[in-house]
## 1
Amino acid sequence: MRVSLFVIGLLVLRASAAGTPAADLRGTARAGDRPQPNASFRDGKKLDLGLYPVGVQKPVVFDKPGLSRIFCNIHPNMAAYVLAVDSPYFGVTDDRGAFAIPLVPSGRFTFHAWRPGGTNLTGTLIADGSPLDVRWP
């Protein structure tokens, strides 16, 4: 049995202007010419890409901030997330849980942190070049 999964489990991007594709969702299954079903619902971009063949790209504009949960209606274990944000300052953790956001100007900012299955964290930080340690309770 082949394992079916999304190549990227989390994609964070800046919400883009209408008409500007921000992400291409592409079918990658290799078991014959099986169509790729992808759907998203709830609080982010709502979409249903229907069934399409391997290799076909489906450009999707994520034009409003929000979390889109991307699912496959054939493989229930497949899930991925697209988080569209309204700021140029964002990051995704590496395997150690660390991240860097370059070129943040000095000042006071509100931060938001999210993870699948966890509660959202919100706090305030003073950007002065010092590292910030964010931990979930």
Note: The chain has no helices and nine strands.
## 2
Amino acid sequence: MDVDEGMPSHSMYYLGLLASLGWELTSKQRMEAPYDVWDRLAKAPLPGGCCESSLDASRVEEVVHVLCEAYRRPEWDEQRREEERRSWTKTMDPEVLGTTVAVERQGRIIGVCLRGVSSLGPGIVEMAVLPEEHRRGVGRYLLYRAMESGRTANVQGKPYRLSVDRDNLGAIALYAAMGYRRSQVLTVARWVKDRP
């Protein structure tokens, strides 16, 4: 559930209520890049020693590992990490894998970008890079490739879209460098089953 923080009086009430009922709250910001940003982007090279890889069902565990490691929070206990792993595994079907760009180094997936296209335009559903691979060009390459494929699907000229955790300053800086600007501030509320 998304709570738009553009209406502060409503937001504070609902967020306080949801938190008291056990919902997990995450501060996010939505970002957009205009359709013509592509014309101004320099091609992002594939980082040295890496190759782009295609995915199928045999690589689901590797993709889930990257997503779990990239999004893991220090305060999560083992039970919470296992819930995340199961949740990511459920979302991995052939259609999702078919819209995912992946980068590997020495046969190991180190970064993934799940793309999507909706009536609002092309978007990044999720992007994750293993923490030890940050600041090596993997994220830039993944974003560039996802935007490139979104451009072919985006015949109406709608903006590229994504959302990012507000405390992920490295990702926000990357997205800004690629032409994205903040379009909305929100809090995402997620019910986590069987949590105290």
Note: DSSP finds six helices and eight strands in the chain.
## 3
Amino acid sequence: MRTARLSFLPNDSIQNYRAPCKAQLQKLKEVQFRVVWAVLNDRNNQVKKSNFKENVVNKIISEIEEHIKKCGGGYSAWYCGIASKPKDRLFEDHNVNEKSGAWIYRDATTDTAARTIEDYFLKKGCKGGDGGGDRQSKYVYAYKITSTTKQ
């Protein structure tokens, strides 16, 4: 009785067959690594942006609070708002005296951050109204209300 050897591929063909599989597997691992890295990097950037925004908001709130304390008057004696052109808003629209008036403005970098700061001061008792401005309104400003200013 003869025994037949079953072989679909010669030995050298098996080696040639395995080599592309290893290369494809390595490429797949590299692609998976890049995808995971990109996702983690994106999340890290989102966290950094979030932390940056929180830092900007807290810094500006502190600066405006210091200015209010330095210039006097409670929060109700101050007006707070947001604008895309804060100087125009302060000195033209609100008629704040640029040289002798008590005023401050800061670049909050985004309209969302500016609205957060504005909301903080409105809740503290500053005059003003939320909902103003547009997507370009990334500056927050405050001024002490006087008999010559316009709210």
Note: Residues 44-144 form one domain.
